[in-house]
Design brief:
571 residues; alpha+beta; seven-stranded antiparallel β-sheet; 21 helices; 37% helix
């Protein structure tokens, strides 16, 4: 089905200022959407109050309004511009909530404006905790025992019958804002009161705490004909209890048996179909590691914060495709720009692994509570691609700009065993380094799994890095050993420092291509990552596409942090 002929002028709502739990993900998504809409000859009206974004550049839209993202201002702009539609699913929680409020008030119907991507009923099924709970029950998708309430008394009553701990999740907030885990009545009174205050509809979900289960996400896409695909699976290194934005994440999911993977994939596709979402959708699951029991944590009926990671991890432009679907196209009509041959209905295939490492603000907020929970504290993140988990994790640690070139940490090495165990139990932003140090000292995988409930697969990979570090101190740096070290993410500088030998031969890096299809088709877009394999795909691509023009290299500014948002991405 081609472009909806009724559409001429589309309004896109941005996500406003950068806040903890929301960085540049929605500027990335909104920029893709604006470009996709303009490609189709549509007139684009953009509203966003953040000047340091790419989407507010004059080239991105036909009419750019740098105004407060409030209902009053949006109504004034709609009355002035008379758009025929609003794209509600690409401005994060801000855009979705404002679109929903305009629709519920009847203002959009009064002005003849339609919602694209997700209608009010679909949004309510995902964002209104009571409707979400009822929807999951109706389609027989398991959820965690819970109650939806608009009062503190309702929360206390549920906890009294279900027992502590419980998790509080406010409706219509981003990054777990206002939520948390309560272990007793005093904590529940504090967290529930805050959650009710911060929810735009004064509503919270109070659910039985299942901390320790695995947390798995699926990024899925559906078009208006009901075609559905899975774009990417992602797995948190931390179990349920740590917000996914504060966890190290790997894509694709790696610790699931095929039966578990297919069970959750099928559930994600079932959910997006039952909710009638047209475009991108993010589904978060909790999976009992001791059985096939699972529960749906939440569904984002929009391009989510995780969509930026999934897009870059796979090379699949989620926001662009979602925008095209919203204006009438089907996935088999949308070309994959990376291959130039396949269509958007072609599920991405990964022949590498991706690791996301969060960037926290505790270097600036030194007195802040570092403990991680259900309320996101990271300001941004870095992503690394490698041929295996070890290589990608080692790259991610170096990219996070925390003065680490590997997982060995001098502060952890100075702690005694008792203090180190306490650090592991603290569940803070430095736990990965404490876990690594414990494995280095000989703590068993079983013991650390009991302390953290981190899956044994991840712990075995960390132990492998520990073993390589130990061998570095004793073994000669033969060619084969150097190749093994480089294959597992040890850079030359780290090898020299840990071995005390800087005279070894330096093995060259090679570069591989992210192509969305596991090399089944040739890629047309140069999107590369480094590794140490023999074949260098970048050289072949450059030789084929070289224009003999002078070459300029541009350095980015790294992860978003306090004091630096997306100004330099814009520049």
């Amino acid at each position: 089905m081609p472009l909806n002929p009724n559409l001429k002028k589309v309004m896109v709502i941005g996500s406003g200022p950068i806040v903890i739990g929301q960085a540049a993900e929605f500027d990335y998504a909104g920029t893709q959407a604006c470009r996709a809409l303009k490609e189709e000859g549509l007139e684009v009206v953009l509203v966003n109050s953040n000047p340091a974004t790419i989407m507010t550049d004059a080239a991105m839209a036909d009419h750019v309004y740098v105004e407060p993202l409030t209902l009053d201002f949006l109504k004034k702009i709609i009355k002035k511009e008379h758009p025929d539609s609003i794209l509600s699913t690409l401005g994060g929680q801000t855009g979705l909530t404002l679109s929903m409020q305009l629709a519920k008030e009847g203002f959009l119907a009064q002005e003849g404006v339609t919602l694209l991507g997700a209608n009010p009923e679909t949004i309510a099924k995902a964002e209104d905790r009571q409707v979400f709970k009822s929807t999951m029950e109706a389609i027989r998708e398991p959820i965690i025992p819970s109650v939806v309430t608009t009062t503190l008394e309702g929360a206390l009553s549920f906890a009294h019958s279900a027992g502590y701990p419980v998790i509080v999740r406010p409706a219509f907030t981003l990054g777990g804002t206002g939520g948390g885990i309560a272990v007793d009545e005093a904590q529940l009174r504090q967290i529930a009161s805050a959650g009710l205050r911060l929810s735009p509809i004064t509503q919270i979900l109070v659910e039985k705490c299942i901390s320790g289960w695995k947390e798995i996400e699926f990024e899925v896409m559906r078009d208006g004909d009901g075609n559905v695909i899975t774009i990417c699976s992602m797995e948190n290194l931390d179990p349920v209890g740590v917000h996914t934005g504060d966890s190290i994440v790997i894509a694709p999911a790696v610790t699931l048996a095929d039966k578990e993977y297919q069970m959750l994939r099928s559930a994600a596709l079932h959910i997006i179909e039952a909710m009638g979402i047209e475009g991108g959708c993010n589904v978060q699951f909790a999976l009992n590691p001791e059985s096939f029991e699972y529960a749906v944590i939440e569904v984002n009926p929009r391009v989510s914060r995780s969509s930026a990671l999934a897009s870059k991890a796979t090379g699949y432009p989620i926001a662009r495709v979602a925008a095209k679907i919203a204006i009438g196209y089907r996935m088999d009509e949308i070309k994959n720009e990376i291959t130039g041959k396949t269509k958007a209905c072609f599920e991405p295939a990964l022949d590498y692994v991706v690791v996301k490492f969060p960037k926290w603000p505790f270097d600036k907020f030194v007195y802040a509570t570092r403990k991680l929970g259900t309320q996101m504290k990271a300001t941004g993140e870095v992503m690394a691609i490698g041929r295996n988990f070890e290589q990608a994790l080692m790259k991610a640690v170096r990219g996070a700009e925390i003065s680490h070139d590997c997982l060995a940490d001098v502060h952890m090495r100075a702690l005694d065993d008792e203090a180190l165990t306490a650090k592991i139990l603290a569940q803070d932003d430095e736990r990965i380094f404490a876990v690594y140090e414990a494995l280095f000292r000989g703590f068993s995988i079983e013991k650390i799994h009991q302390l953290t409930l981190i899956d044994e697969w991840f712990l075995a990979k960390l132990l492998h890095l520990c073993d390589l570090e130990k061998r570095l101190k004793t073994e000669p740096l033969t060619h084969d050993f150097l190749r093994e070290l480089k294959r597992n993410g040890f850079p030359d500088k780290t090898i020299a420092r840990l071995s005390g030998n800087s005279t070894f031969p330096h093995l060259p890096y090679s570069y591989k291509m992210v192509d969305t299809c596991g090399a089944e088709f040739a890629a047309e877009t140069p999107y590369f990552y480094s590794t140490t394999d023999e074949e260098d795909e970048a050289s072949a691509f450059i030789a084929e596409h070289s224009s003999k023009k002078p070459v300029v290299i541009v350095f980015g500014s790294g992860p978003i942090r306090i004091g630096q948002g997306i100004e330099f991405d814009y520049a």
